[in-house]
Amino acid sequence: MRGLGGSPVFIMSEDAERQTGADAQENNIAACKTVAKAVRTTLGPKGMDKMMVDSVGDLVVTNDGVTILEEMDIQHPAAKMMVEVAQTQEEEVGDGTTTAVVLAGELLKQAEGLLEQEIHPTVITRGYRLAREKSVDILDDISEEVDLADEDTLEKVAMTAMTGKSAESARDYLAEIAVSAVRQVAEEEGDLLVIDRDMVKLEKKEGGTIDETELVQGVILDKEKVHGGMPSNISDAKIALLNTPIEVRETETDAEINISDPSQLKGFVEEEEKQLKEMVEALDDAGANVVLCQKGIDDIAQHYLAKRGIFAVRRVSSKDMDKLAKATGANIVTSIEDVSEDDLGEAGTVKENRIGGDSMTFVQDCPEAKSVSILIRGGTEHVVDEIDRAMEDAIGGVASALRNGKVVGGGGATEVELAQQLRDYADSVGGREQLAINAFADALEVLPRTLAENAGFDPIDVLVDLRNKHEKGEIWAGIDVSSGESEGLFDQGVVEPRQTKTQAVQSASESAEMILRIDDVISASGFDGGGGDAPAPEGGMPGGGMGGMGGMM
Description:
Layout: E1 17-20, H1 21-40, E2 50-53, E3 59-62, H2 65-71, H3 77-92, H4 97-116, H5 121-142, E4 144-145, H6 151-162, H7 171-185, E5 187-189, E6 192-194, E7 200-206, E8 214-216, E9 219-221, E10 233-242, H8 262-286, E11 290-293, H9 299-307, E12 311-313, H10 318-328, E13 332-333, E14 345-355, E15 358-364, E16 372-378, H11 381-404, E17 406-409, H12 413-429, H13 433-444, H14 446-455, H15 459-471, E18 477-479, E19 486-488, E20 495-497, H16 498-516, E21 520-523
Parallel strand pairs: 7-16, 10-11, 10-13, 11-12
Antiparallel strand pairs: 1-21, 2-3, 4-17, 5-6, 8-16, 9-15, 10-14, 14-15, 17-20, 18-19
Helix pairs in contact: 1-3, 1-4, 2-3, 3-4, 3-16, 4-13, 4-16, 5-12, 5-13, 5-16, 6-7, 6-11, 7-11, 8-9, 12-13, 12-15, 14-15
């Protein structure tokens, strides 16, 4: 930039890079399309897996969208926004991350065509916003109701969420566990159904088979008892939860103790032992036969606890303490001296079991457990990790369906119906926004097209057949990935929470709109905006590539 007198005025560092106008938009769109392309082949029951290897050689094998994106070393700023789409979908719903990312990428691809027709980005984003709002209204109209008593539909939701993952071979059994777990922790507050997904704890242990996965009405701790002399199995457990150590308290101020002869040392040690003994007696007098401590337990205290037949575990995490309180009904106690029978929780049994070569503590058979645990088993570490992700999706899907009380059909049925109704809506809008709404409808159809491609069928034939079925009023007609035919999949058990679709549409659309509105990218000196092999456009960031994507490009 030139100032008065023709001399240049520098407002940024000489090393800073700037990309403006169409170049910036093209670069951002290309990066986001690359991310969507990377996860697109994982979509649906016939989707493929990705193997992610980090810098130290650790690998992850998965087809879970958010896991893939988090493992990728993405550097491009616009591409990072796609990762945020997946993370938001995961946090809000727990499933549908790949759907959201693929849709966002396709919305930008469709917008690219409109930009080439010299339609202003503001017009496109306005049309997308209208389409997004209309899509939510359509989803409200076509969705079916579900409630806590409808176990059959909830199990279908769980099975749909697990389809295409390693857990599919035992999905009927795992779906029952997921639904039972969510129904157990669900609490009614007035007209609302509150479900805290954190109250369903997933504990993994490799070894055994998937069929050995089990639901525990309580909490599993990956901990063992602190002393070999303690009983390994406590029936009719009375549980004290402590967030204070069973140790001699240190003074809050610096203190010095001078001992001049051995008798004084003996008295000092005896006094410490006496304090520890009194702590154990206070717990015993309150009626506790199980002590679960968030902090440390002194060796001498362990001895006294063992003598009184009390089962004790130390260093329990604060999250597990909250789950234990919900499961057993115990109060978390800060002062051992003040512990009473009313503070104790109850469990049918507390026992130490050896699972996969490690000792674990099972606090189970709790009378009114509002916190449960699922012990996940599988042949290898990678299998167990993938089953864990599948269970997370299933639990998230069931919880989402119950919270909103609505479900929709899967297999691309919902997207085709949305696209059809959006095209009718576009005719009533008029103006250039009409083109953007139609582009939004075309983008939605990328999902059934991708399902067909990943299953090895011709996407054009499949899409034409689906459109014909929907024009005849078959709202839940979707693609059967086994036969390639258009079927009423809702009745066949392919069911998804409505929130999976609403959240995916909203987050994908909002992120696409934000990216389209960017016409100037300024990167600080030393920042590698692209990280790929493509040369940087003049004065701009490296285009097209993202660090860590390697052969996925």
